[in-house]
Structure formats: structure tokens, C-alpha cells
Amino acid sequence: MKIVVFSDIHGNAAALKALLELEPPAPDIQYIFLGDMVGYYPQEHQVLEYLKSIPHLIWICGNHDRYYTEPHTPEQIAQLCQKYGDCYKRVDPAIASVVSKLPTSVATVLNGRSVLLCHGSPADFLSGRIYPDTPLPDACETSVVICGHTHYRMLRQKGDTVYLNPGSLGQPRDGKGFSYCTIDENWKITFCSVPLNIPQFIKDCGNELRHDSYSYRVLEREYHER
Fold first, then answer.
1. Are the C-beta atoms of 103 and 61 separated by less than 8 Å?
2. Collapsing DSSP states into helix, strand and coil, what is residue 195?
3. CA 221, CA 203: separation in Å to the nearest integer?
4. Domain limits at 89?
5. Where are the beta strands (DSSP E) in the chain?
6. Total count of domains within the chain
7. What is the CATH number for 12?
């Protein structure tokens, strides 16, 4: 079975739409989303509709998904919105209901190999970070760990365990594009990028994407590094 892995959409429905055009949903494809559907960009409703259209989707909770469903004081909401965009002050019960039921990890077998799926790391499923240069755990109970959260593509190995991060579909920070990866039946891993018209996406986000925000700067950097 072909496997398509993506992570960290962060309200970027345009990038998810581009992925589904490149990898059309099919019954013989296993799709894996490693979390963070919300935050930064304002298209979370469209993102949810696209995700709901994908068959055989394994969907993991991310730290921003948890922020979205947790109770907050007005001061905390203001801080979240200042850092990550305005979705936290317009929480939609329909989205919260879906996100609140997501697992923080899944241990499974894919194409004959034992796999741990999480947003962060084996030590901290929601918020742990494994970067391309981060020390790897001494041991892991599965032969593959697939994680997101850092927005950096990664393929590393320690001992008998492979560590894989598809990068970010919605907000890449490594200068390598709006990314995902595929895994074939022989565990050949291929990193891929989706096309995104960044100026048009910024325009579509409207006033919610402040030009002095980190979210805007990341998009601008990605645009100029192409």
C-alpha cells in the first residue's frame, strides 16, 4: 500500500488542496496527518472539509489542536492570537468536537514495519521536537518513528529505528517547500513539495494575516528563497 504522510497544515487549505490534487484520495492509499490543522492561517474550516474527504486517514492531535480545544482566559486567548493568528478567539464547536477526539499517538504496523506516529516525539507526543541535528533517543520500541512539529524535513536512523518527518505542508521553515512524503510498499521514502501561489494565498488570507506577524514573515521568506 502507498502511504502519504503530511503534517502541520496550520489553516492553509490551499496547500492541502494542492496535495489532494497531486495525491487524489483512493482506497489503496493510506493517508497520515500528524496534526496541527489550526493556527497561523485562517482557512481551518476548509481544511476540515478536505480532511473529512480523505478515506483511510490516520489523524494525530498536534499541540495547536490541543490549544484550540483547551479552556483559556481572555488574556491567554489574546496571547495565542498575537502569536498564532485569530482562530483561537473564534473556536468553532464543530471543529473542536473533531479535534478533541484525536489521539496523541498511534502505534501501528505499516507495510510490514512497526511504526509510532506522533506530532512531537516519543518522549513528548504533543510538544517534543526532533530536528535534523537533534540527538536521537537511545532506544525505541518501533522500527519507525514518524513525527512532525518542527516544520523541517528529516530522515535519520539510529540503531534499528528510522526517524522521519515529512516537513510542513502548510508552513515550511526549512526553505524546501510546502512538503509531504510518500512511502512505497518497500519502504522507499520520497519527499515531495506542492505548488502554492504565495502572493495569492496571502491575499486570500485577507486582514487576518498581519504583515508584521511571524506567519507572514515565514511565507515571505519561503517566497524569496524559491
1. yes
2. coil
3. 16
4. 2-225
5. 2-6, 29-33, 57-59, 105-110, 113-118, 144-146, 153-158, 161-166, 178-183, 189-194
6. 1
7. 3.60.21.10
